[in-house]
Amino acid sequence: MDKGISNSNNLDSKILRKSEGLQRGMKGRHVTMIAVGGTIGTGLFLGSGYVLQNAGPGGSILAYAAGGLLMYIMMVCLGELVVAIPVSGSTQAYANELISPAAGFLAGWIRWIACAVTITSQLVASSIIMKNILPSVPSVVWIITFTLLLFFLNLFSARGYGEVEFWFVSIKVITIAIFILVAVGIVLGFIGDGAKVTKSFNEISWFTADLKTVLMTIMTASFAYGGVDLIASAAGESEDPEKNLPRVIYTVIFSLIIIYFICLLLLSFILPWEEASLNMSPFAYVLRRAGLRSAELIINVVVVTSALSSANTFIFSCTRTLWSLGRHDQAFKFLGKVNSRKVPVNALLISMVFAILALLSSFISSDVVYLFLISSVGLGNMFLYGLTCLCQYKFRKKYISEGNSIESLKFKAPLYPVLPICGVILYSLIVIGMALDPTQRIALYTGLPTYLFLYIIYRFSKGRKRKIS
User: Fold this and answer.
1) Which of 62, 85, 154, 432 stands the most exposed, by the fewest C-beta atoms within 10 Å?
2) Could you tell me which CATH class the domain 11-457 is placed in?
């Protein structure tokens, strides 16, 4: 068994045995930055414009708060699982043993599709921002360039990848901190012409949208938290997971909620919500209104870096998910192989081929493609989050039935069994709410049949194995 894992119960050993083969070289700071880097991306820098435009200032804060609650429930349930059984593959590895092979098959492939589509959405978002910086260069050039760059970055070992991503995310976090300081300076009148660009608390029309509209934007807001579960993908390559992961989980949860709340509050004071859109980062727009045009260019560059950093992180997760499917005999066996540097290159190549779908945005309106992609990812995330809660519910019951004490768990989800049950109900309601929004409804039309098709493939492949045996 891997160093740093002291679990000895039968269930832990079974899951860990199938998930061996990757190198445990990531430190706690690497895992933290991977989770933060995968999460803070275009969902905040670009998607917040769509939420502001539709839900208004108060509605946006409520939508992101609801997204934060959904993220918290999933993360504490996932936290109990990854600390007790730290493997790459995330929900797929747990569902396979805790629920059924069919659930693991669906979880793995839905997770892989969601990650691959997120990579695509980040590439599309990058091309949108680059269009603002260099309008004369076609989007397809940027998409191809960025795809090749990300592919070569992911050929590093896990530790090398973690180090590169650590510095990329550090730049992103520092930029957000600088933006907050600048925005506070604008609101207080220290920077730019504050009297012209800011409003007092009483001047802001906080609640301009009805409850139905706010509910419809929760999915887009939830996308901004998508990627936080990348902690699970990195768990299988983390040093001393029992010590590092509990601290990392709570650091990531509360850091993200605080950052998003402060950014949205400041945007509400400066940016007229009706002028927000998906065609420009609201962060860049704020600085333009303050007369800081050179800073606007810097923000656009950072947003591109942020999107690529997020895409880079999702490539990592996407590759590990496909590798785990290969290890669990739920995909071609060659996908479960690694090279001399312990990198699953075959899974990486297949994942990058799928990401090339971003080229479609060159022929369709980029903002329309982006909105469709994040809705599709959101649908997949809600399914996986609900399944994660169900896995934690099953794990706790099985853990106790094997004669283990709850006190021996290094990380425990609170309010068991109420919390995982509430999580399953809430995620189901969010999916139902997608049907209310015409712009997100298409994700249901394409996503649900895809999931049904995956299940049919599983039943068919299982039937063939029975005949052969």
Assistant:
1) 432
2) mainly alpha
